[in-house]
Description:
- The protein is α/β, with parallel strands linked by helices.
- It is built from nine helices and eight strands.
- Strands 6-5-4-3-2-1-8-7 form an eight-stranded parallel β-sheet.
- Helix 4 links the parallel strand 4 and strand 5.
- Helix 3 packs parallel to helix 4 (118-125), helix 6 (187-195) packs across helix 7 and helix 8 (229-241) runs parallel beside helix 9 (252-266).
- Bound molecules: 6-hydroxymethylpterin-diphosphate.
- Residues 13, 15, 17, 20-22, 51, 54-56, 88, 107, 109, 130, 132, 178, 180-181, 208, 210, 248 line the site of 6-hydroxymethylpterin-diphosphate.
Amino acid sequence: MLEDDTATRVMGILNATPDSFYDGGRYYTPEEAAAHAARMAADGAHILDIGAESSRPGATPVSLEEELRRALPAVEAAVPTGLPVSIDTWRAETARRALALGAVMVNDITGLRGDPAMVEVVAASGCFCVIMHMRGTPRTMQDDPTYTDVIADISAFFEERVTYALDNGISEDRIWLDPGFGFGKTVEQNLALLRHLDAFHALGFPLLIGTSNKSTIGAVLDVPPEDRSGGTAATVAIAIVKGVHCVRVHDVKTMARVARMSDAVVRAAPRSD
Ligand code: HH2
C-alpha cells in the first residue's frame, strides 16, 4: 500500500454511524455509502476507512450485531471502487467478516487490546493493521489524561504493542502506527504530538494520523466541527512535513490537494547545489 513512497496516502473516512461527531448520519444507507465511497475515490483517496461505531469522547459502544448491520453493507459498497478498504473496528468478528468481503486493513483504535481474538484474525488473514494509541476507552479517555512524557509514553506503548503483534504472528510489513490524535489527550498534548511526530520514525513503521475536524482544532480556532477545514489543512500539512505516511480525513477533495501540495515541497529531490 506504500509502493510509491513519494506520495502521502489519503485515507477517506466513511462513518456508517448515526452519531459520529462530524459526518454522523450522512452515509448511513448502503446507497449513501456507495455514493460517498465513489466520490472519495474520484476526489483522490488512496484508502477508504469504514467505521460503524463512533469513538468520539464519551460515546457509548454499540452491540456487535448493530456494528455488523452498519459496517458490512458499507464495506460491500466501498470494495467496488477498487481502492483498498480498511475496517475501523476493535471487534475481531467485525474485522473477520469485513476482511471476507474484501477489506485489506484493520484499523483498531484499541491497538489490539479491545478484543483478545483480534490479533489472530489479523495474523491469519495477512491484512494490514493500524495500531493506534488511546489512553483508556472512548468513554473514559478524556478523564484527566496525564503522561510522564506524552511522546515517550506513546513510543513505549507502540514498542509493547508491536512486540505483541509480532509474537502473535502479524508480519512486520503489515503494521502501521497511529499516535491517536484526540484519544485521551489534552489540547496541549495533541499539539505536542503533531510537533514531535517525527520522533515516532525511530520505531521503523509507517505512520498514520487522524486530525480531521477534531476538537483540538475547534479549541484553538473556537469554531464548530463544520468550520474546521482550514485548521485541518494546517495539521495535514504539518504532519506531512513531519514525515507521516498517511492522513485520515473527511474532506478528501480538499485534503488530497493539501497533501499533494505539501508533498511537492517536502518530497522533492534533494538539492544538488
Ligand atoms: N479517529 C477517529 C476514528 N478512528 N482511527 C485512527 N487510526 N486514527 C484516528 O485518529 C481515528 C480513528 C475519530 O474520528 P471520526 O471517525 O471522524 O469520528 P467518530 O469516532 O465520531 O465516528
